[in-house]
Amino acid sequence: MNNLTDEQRYLQLQTLPINDLQTLLTFAGQSRTGKRQELVDRCHALMKSSMVIREKCDELHNKRFGQGEKPTIPYPRDSTNTLRTTHHHLHSNQQQNVEIRFAPFTFNEDLCVISPPHAIAPSKQSANGTQSLANFYFLLTAQQASDVATSTFYSTDQSKIEYRKQILLRFTTIGGDSTHNGINAPDKLPPNLHVIVNSRAVLLPQPKPTAKPNSDVIRPGLGRPIDITEYCRLCPLISNLIEISWFTQDLSVPPPTYVAAVFLTERKTVPQLLARLSRPSAIRPSIETQRTITQILSASQTPQGIDNDLEVASTSLRLPLDCPAMRIRMRLPGRAVTCKHVHCFDLEGYLRMNEKKPTWLCPVCNKQALYTDLFVDQFFIDIIGKCSSDAKAIEYETNGQWKAVGEEKLSRRAQREREAYKAAQAAKNTNGKSTADIDHSGDDDSNDERALTKSTERPTTTNNAQDDIPIIELDDD
């Protein structure tokens, strides 16, 4: 589209909605107020003198009308903004920039650093606890503001408008009991945290329940940054203010020094993450899994034995085809390289569970299974494709042969318990019925006796009543 004439450029602007025109003006650092025709004329004047504006207009036009996506105009990946260090709190001079690298977040890919990590030491100590206050400004560039503003979509799960490119606020600790040494530092929220962005309180994760009175409010911030995109001003001319405060009442140990930073990231969906795992180079061949199973079966026949976590028979190994977490047939079976077992779980369900609550624990062995350690097992993909829908597991023999196992053989003990329960219930019902019949016959006999007694008593009562009636004889006179 770079060869369009001036008239064609003007017609192109006429087809864009007001939101895109305002986005283009925001990208150029110009005022976005006014009527539609005024916005068109303003954008047209900018396009005459700037090729960057013309490329941005082509990008918006392609996204809007589906003529193929054009790559976003890149900006330096590790670029940092100059902070306007206008702090209002008394203890703002305790903020210091530190060299630290946060652990990568699975569902967000870092694009650039908006506000570099800086340490905020405790600012106020008293007999009741330690309190920390800090605030700082950051300013988005025109490119960053445009990228975030044009990445909106409607989330059916949350029933609201969300952003594919997000601004995240992350916390971690340095010193004390921290073991990361500034590399791959995990997210950790301070106790009793309150965050205000542009005079709006940020919604934080729910705190952990506790029964201790007057205890600190600890939020499960491990592995989960704070999304502040909807609270930010997406304009390169207006700065954003973040106010942070927290305190702790635990004086038994010295409070750690927390580090805060702001990142611009791109949201990754579960299908995108699965596509990375499904690459041919990331799939483990079937021969490797078969070799592992053979080693496990061979180890089970040695005097030393193997790990108790592995469900091993003497001559075969039973491998379920259902996901232990989702309780359904696996569609994309896999596991982590850190797992010692060969049992798999469904990778899609595993990612969706960790998207809502990041624990990253294997549902089979309950050990850590990070996304970077996951792989797809081709052996189980082939097995699931060959088995029928009613097959619940397979039994792999020592000779390399396998056979499908149905529900009855898979739960033989449960089947015996179920049959015993049914027999006990049948016997109970039979005894109860016979007893009820005896009681019912006894009741019938008593009812018959009462009926007979009443029938015999009624005439007697009638005759006695007749005897009691005086008889009056009348004379002829």
UniProtKB/TrEMBL annotation:
Q: Which residues form the SAP domain?
A: 13-47
Primary subcellular site in the record, as a coarse category:
nucleus
Q: Keywords in UniProt for this one? A: Metal-binding, Nucleus, Transferase, Ubl conjugation pathway, Zinc, Zinc-finger
What GO terms in the biological process aspect are recorded for it?
A: protein sumoylation; regulation of transcription by RNA polymerase II
What InterPro entries has UniProt attached to this entry?
Answer: PINIT, PINIT_sf, SAP_dom, SAP_dom_sf, Znf_MIZ, Znf_RING/FYVE/PHD
Q: Where is the SP-RING-type domain?
A: 308-389
Q: Which GO terms describe its cellular component?
A: chromatin; nucleus
Query: What is a single Pfam family found in this protein's UniProt entry?
Result: zf-MIZ
| Domain PINIT span(s) in chain numbering | 87-268
Keyword Transferase in annotation: yes
Give me the stretches of Basic and acidic residues compositional bias: 409-421, 436-457
Pathway assigned in UniProt:
Protein modification; protein sumoylation
Annotated GO molecular function terms are:
SUMO ligase activity; transcription coregulator activity; zinc ion binding
The source's domain of life comes to Eukaryota
Q: Which Gene3D superfamilies match?
A: PINIT domain, SAP domain, Zinc/RING finger domain, C3HC4 (zinc finger)
User: Region Disordered: what ranges?
Assistant: 409-477
Q: Where, subcellularly, is it found?
A: Nucleus
By sequence similarity, the record places it as follows: Belongs to the PIAS family.
Record-given protein name: Uncharacterized protein
Task: Report the source organism.
Answer: Rotaria sordida
